[in-house]
Write a structure and sequence with these properties.
The complex is a heterodimer of chains A (204) and B (321). Chain A contains 3 helices and 12 strands, in the order ααβββββββαβββββ. Chain A has helices spanning 2-6, 8-33, 125-128; strands at 44-48, 74-75, 77-82, 85-90, 103-104, 109-114, 119-123, 132-134, 144-147, 168-172, 175-178, 192-198. In chain A, strand 6 (109-114) and strand 7 (119-123) form a beta hairpin. Chain A is elongated and about 85 Å long. Chain B has helices spanning 3-16, 21-34, 41-64, 70-94, 100-122, 130-150, 153-175, 183-205, 214-232, 241-261, 264-285, 292-317. The two termini of chain B are 38 Å apart. By secondary structure, chain B is mainly alpha-helical. Classes of the chains: A alpha+beta (204), B mainly alpha (321). Chain A binds chain B through residues 7, 9-10, 12-14, 16-17, 20-21, 24-25, 28, 146-151, 153-159, 161, 164, 167, 169, 171, 174, 176-178, and chain B through 114, 117, 120-121, 125-129, 131-133, 163, 167, 169-180, 183, 189-190, 193-194, 196-201, 203-204.
Chain lengths: 204, 321
């Protein structure tokens, strides 16, 4: 006990990092073990390709990105969520700054991610248009879709450990589960369109 | 009393249990504390020489890397590191070579961890933070053990360095890749904890032969705590009021702690972060209520105050520290 008293600063100095590791482990893993967050219930619609006007809540100046040319053509149609439905609208004439750029149909591929089975299935625009959608960032049960963290693996340091920005997670509080999406490799663009509120799939 | 008689008496006292080996260690450490700090040109040259040799090995191996077999890669990194460590340990036993063993320990400390990772890579292990974290934790323990036998502060420095790597790697492994916390905040919290740990270690070492490490631990510790707390404040409109209140408290705490532990570097860092806090808070909360020139006058006078406070504390309490 006398020895402990003499070395109390050393003991505290060594204990702080250990305690922090224990606290972090507790904060991250206890809620998962105790299963305190119910799993997500709402499937969502996403797209790969061009011509979709994604809702952009981070953009203070415009609620959605304006149409833009792709693969050298001006998209004939623009897809967006309007009043809870996916709609296809004619984009309009080619803006003057793009000169004599040709118009073309550059339809994206639409997918539904089933949170119950954790799988994606491709659907046509006509089928997707039947769903009732919620284009909010969070699902009605409070989940959102976020990218993985940027810190790569620590090893091998000098053989190039990649980061995990291109991994996607469905997330709420301490709950985070990696999504298995049909995205191209190293895809950093937008893909999420909206949560499907009717009919709700998954575990509901 | 001649030297042999004295040694015989000490041996007898040890046998009889009148004194124990730790008493001798305390006596030796106390002697080292009172001895003037050896900061010689030769000491600096040993480290510079070690650094240049490490650079040479790194460039040479790097140039030949693609042509080397796995065995040679391991031999030139891990093998060389272990050889330098053994050489340092053998030189240590001669006790006649000043701080030459430090130069070899310096090389070994840089080469051995790299060599272990090269070996693992050659054996086909890839990925993850947990494994490297455990490896660095083991290096930390091994170097603490080596320090127990050789009492070289450089070994203790490396053990602190390895423990730091282990802490960051293991906490990264715990977090995984899932977005459970805000990544920037998570890094800042870890720096605050690490900095606090450094300050306590510096304090623990202050009255022993390890005291040469204390100023560095105080300096890096204060930088980590105050920098982490500053980062945790965030910026309008998503600032954290809790950290905006706590951070100046930590800054003043660091400045007064600097007086208690007689650390000039901590006092200086406290002043720098106090200036940073003044600018941040003024810009964030008084930008719209005061015009820019008035704001500059206000911040300027506050800075003069901080400057005088630092000068006063330094002159009154830390002169000669």
């Amino acid at each position: 006990m006398e020895k402990l008293k003499q070395n109390i600063a050393l003991v505290v100095g060594l204990s702080i990092p250990l305690l922090m590791m224990l606290i972090i482990a507790g904060v991250i893993y206890l809620p998962r073990w105790m299963n305190s967050t119910p799993p997500p219930r709402y499937d969502f619609l996403y797209a790969v390709g061009d011509g979709v006007q994604y809702f952009a809540p981070q953009n203070y100046y415009a609620p959605a990105y304006p149409p833009y040319p792709t693969k050298g053509v001006w998209p004939k149609y623009t897809y967006r969520v309007l009043d809870g439905k996916l709609v296809r609208q004619t984009t309009g004439p080619v803006p003057k700054e793009y000169g004599t750029m040709p118009e073309g149909d550059v339809s994206p591929k639409f997918y539904v991610y089933h949170v119950g089975t954790k799988k994606s299935s491709e659907i046509t625009f006509d089928d997707a248009a039947l769903y009732t959608l919620d284009s909010g960032v969070k699902s009605p049960d409070g989940f959102d879709i976020v990218r993985g963290q940027g810190s790569g693996d620590g090893f091998p340091f000098f053989f190039g450990g990649g980061n995990n920005y291109n991994k996607q997670y469905i997330h709420k509080g301490q709950y985070a589960e990696e999504l298995s999406l049909n995205l191209p490799e190293n895809y950093y663009g937008d893909f999420f369109i909206a949560w499907i509120t009717n009919p709700p799939h998954g575990n509901r | 009393m001649d030297k042999n008689t004295l040694l015989q008496n000490i041996t007898q006292a040890l046998r009889d249990g009148i004194i124990v080996p730790s008493d001798l260690r305390i006596l030796m450490e106390a002697q080292e504390v009172h001895a003037p700090r050896a900061f010689s040109i030769s000491g600096i040259l040993y480290y510079i020489g070690g650094g240049i040799a490490f650079l040479g090995i790194g460039i040479f191996v790097g140039q030949q890397w693609s042509d080397l077999s796995s065995f040679l890669r391991i031999l030139l990194t891990l093998g060389a590191g272990l050889a330098f460590f053994v050489a340092a340990a053998l030189l240590e036993s001669t006790k006649k070579l000043d701080r030459v063993p430090d130069a070899f320990h310096f090389l070994a400390g840089l080469l051995i961890p790299g060599g272990v990772f090269v070996t693992l890579n050659e054996l086909g292990f890839h990925g993850g933070n947990f494994g490297p974290g455990i490896i660095f934790a083991m290096f930390f323990l091994l170097y603490v053990l080596a320090y127990r036998f050789m009492s070289r502060n450089l070994l203790l420095t490396f053990s602190v360095l390895y423990a730091t790597f282990a802490f960051f790697l293991l906490t990264s492994a715990l977090m995984g890749n899932a977005p459970t916390f805000n990544e920037t905040d998570y890094i800042a919290y870890r720096f605050v904890a690490l900095g606090a740990s450094y300050i306590f270690l510096g304090y623990a070492f202050r009255e022993s032969s390890r005291r040469v490490l204390s100023p560095f631990l105080y300096g890096f510790g204060a930088l980590a705590v105050l920098g982490g707390a500053f980062a945790l404040q965030g910026w309008s409109p998503t600032q954290s009021i809790f950290w905006e209140i706590l951070s100046p408290g930590l800054v003043f705490g660091a400045m007064f702690l600097a007086i208690h532990i007689r650390s000039r570097v901590m006092l200086f860092l406290g002043a720098v972060f106090l200036i940073g806090d003044i600018f941040k808070i003024t810009q964030e909360y008084f930008r719209d209520s005061l015009s820019w020139p008035l704001l500059l006058i206000f911040a300027g006078f506050l800075l003069i105050g901080v400057g005088y406070l630092t000068f006063y504390l330094n002159r009154k309490y830390l002169r000669g520290a």
